[in-house]
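re: the backbone from monday

yeah here it is again, tokenized this time
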């Protein structure tokens, strides 16, 4: 009897995912007011449920629909973000458990596939002038962001995943910058391999590894592999020195938590400024950003050591 409520919730979650997945496929044929009414009706219908994870999912999609109406949030990105939180989540649930390395990688890979397919479907039917290479680039960014947010331990990932992935894709859509798909795939595979190794040797936890994947992919595609090697050297040094005399540090109460594994806060705290400068160099092409990048890494290294 204790399993029935959880099973019922899982079934309802699947139904909602299928419903919104179908809505994503119908986006080219729906007026914005029709879309708002559909999502609002579903949100109200699930608002009384406890726990309210289904209402969170509905509410997050409602926010994106309203943004599309008020701020012209691109409809193809709306469809891509819905695909990430519905189709890829359902596929992940069939293959692996949530909050595991296998589950996160599955979510990411199928997130890229479904976001690209749904986004391309909407672009083709609405005759939006956007290249498939650009859509693939945005799908990769959205899927990595969604997988990262989904891996972070909290109760509201059905709220944060669609919003976070949508905002990340919207941000980079404004840059109008992309790279050839084979370049992007190589960067993604390389970063997934490094992230998996860092997780297995306990340098990073799952959110930390996925944060590194996001930073690495963006730095490689907006600058080049040499910029990433500098950041990678910093994280390797940081991992080594974190473990140096770990027992002694632990006795003093100053040791890194979780056995020295870095979380997403550590990764973004040390690498976010460098990421911004690498992206700026790729977009604007000013070499002054390279000096800033080196300075940011040097500062983070000095603080860590």
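seq for it, each position gets an aa:
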């Amino acid at each position: 009897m204790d399993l029935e409520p959880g099973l019922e919730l899982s079934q309802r979650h699947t139904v909602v995912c299928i419903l919104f997945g179908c809505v994503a496929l119908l986006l080219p044929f729906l007026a914005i007011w029709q879309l708002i009414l559909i999502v609002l009706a579903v949100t109200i219908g699930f608002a009384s449920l406890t726990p309210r994870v289904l209402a969170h999912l509905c509410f997050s999609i409602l926010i994106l629909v309203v943004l599309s109406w008020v701020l012209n949030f691109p409809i193809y990105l709306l469809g891509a973000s819905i695909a990430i939180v519905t189709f890829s989540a359902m596929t992940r649930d069939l293959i692996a458990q949530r909050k595991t390395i296998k589950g996160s990688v599955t979510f990411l890979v199928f997130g890229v596939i479904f976001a690209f397919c749904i986004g391309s479907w909407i672009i083709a039917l609405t005759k939006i002038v956007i290249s498939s290479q650009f859509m693939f680039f945005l799908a990769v960014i959205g899927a990595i962001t969604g997988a990262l947010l989904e891996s972070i331990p909290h109760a509201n990932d059905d709220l944060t995943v669609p919003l976070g992935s949508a905002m990340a894709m919207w941000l980079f859509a404004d840059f109008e910058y992309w790279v050839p798909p084979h370049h992007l795939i190589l960067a993604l595979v390389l970063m997934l391999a490094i992230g998996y190794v860092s997780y297995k040797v306990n340098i990073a936890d799952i959110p930390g590894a996925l944060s590194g994947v996001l930073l690495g992919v963006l730095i490689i595609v907006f600058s080049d592999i040499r910029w990433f090697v500098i950041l990678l050297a910093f994280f390797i040094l940081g991992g080594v020195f974190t473990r140096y005399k770990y027992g002694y540090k632990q006795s003093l109460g100053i040791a890194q938590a979780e056995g020295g594994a870095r979380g997403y806060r550590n990764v973004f705290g040390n690498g976010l400024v460098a990421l911004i400068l690498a992206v700026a160099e790729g977009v604007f092409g000013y070499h002054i950003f390279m000096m800033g990048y080196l300075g940011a890494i040097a500062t983070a290294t000095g603080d860590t050591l």
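Residues 1-7 have pLDDT under 50 and may be disordered. The radius of gyration is 20 Å.
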